[in-house]
Amino acid sequence: MRIRAAHPSDSAELAELFTSSVHGLASPHYDANQLHAWAPNPPDPDYWRRRLAAVDVRVAEIDGQLAGFVGFHDNGHIDLMFVHPDHARSGVATALLKHAEHELAAVGVVSFHTEASEAARPFFERQGFEVERHEFVDARGVEIGRYVMRKRKGSSAPGQ
Ligand SMILES: CC(C)(COP(=O)(O)OP(=O)(O)OC[C@H]1O[C@@H](n2cnc3c(N)ncnc32)[C@H](O)[C@@H]1OP(=O)(O)O)[C@@H](O)C(=O)NCCC(=O)NCCS
């Protein structure tokens, strides 16, 4: 696995990866309306060009294919974390999160936060994040539940 900065030319592939990830991996946790509101299929390329330009993005490549990506801000916000279903549970998100945390720690960030989906909550808990609160957000007119989660740098994951 290789982790590198995203290029603007990755945006169409990342939009496809996001869509496959939500529909393939979050589907046990949300109904069809919620999934389509969260990840319209096909994705809107202009939306994704703008979305990805506004965040630091690192991608994981396996055999030249994009396997996942993380998006973050220098206030410690982990904004995006999506893995392709073909590469689920093989450590891609763990590697991306460690990479993002390392880069952020290097610029003095000591606390990380995210808004985790029902599907992602166990992953972030495993990485040492704790739930601050549950909330509902409006996505294209549909309510979607998620967890605001936080981790202080150096918090160890449960059992590690
Ligand atoms: C959540 C997500 C990013 C995890 O990616 P991943 O690369 O599969 O995660 P990893 O392989 O690094 O998982 C590390 C550990 O996290 C935990 N974990 C990950 N996915 C899990 C799941 N679906 N259920 C329970 N635990 C999970 C496990 O402890 C796992 O270790 P194990 O596989 O040895 O048991 C991925 O499932 C995904 O993209 N989901 C859909 C989109 C989404 O909800 N993204 C987050 C938006 S906030």
Produce a short descriptive summary:
The protein has 160 residues and is α+β, with helices and mostly antiparallel strands. Helices cover 32% and strands 33% of the residues.
Order of helices and strands: EHHHEEEHEHEE
Our count of helices gives 5
CATH topology name of the domain at 2-110, in short, is Aminopeptidase
Mean model confidence by pLDDT: 96
Highest CATH level, the class of the domain at 2-110: Alpha Beta
Q: pLDDT under 50 segments (min length 5)? A: none
> Approximately what portion of the residues adopt beta-strand conformation?
25-35%
CATH architecture of the domain at 2-110: 3-Layer(aba) Sandwich
Query: CATH superfamily of the domain at 2-110, please?
Result: Gcn5-related N-acetyltransferase (GNAT)
**Structural class, from secondary structure content?**
alpha+beta
Rg, nearest Å: 15 Å
Could you characterize the architecture of this molecule?
The protein has 160 residues and is of the alpha+beta class. The chain has a domain at 2-110: Gcn5-related N-acetyltransferase (GNAT) (Aminopeptidase), CATH 3.40.630. It has five helices and seven strands; from the N terminus they run βαααβββαβαββ. It has a seven-stranded mixed β-sheet. Helix 1 (11-25) packs across helix 3 (45-53). The structure holds coenzyme A. Coenzyme A binds next to helix 1, strand 4, helix 4 and helix 5. Residues 21-22, 25-26, 68, 81-83, 88-94, 116-117, 119-120, 122-123, 126 line the site of coenzyme A (COA).
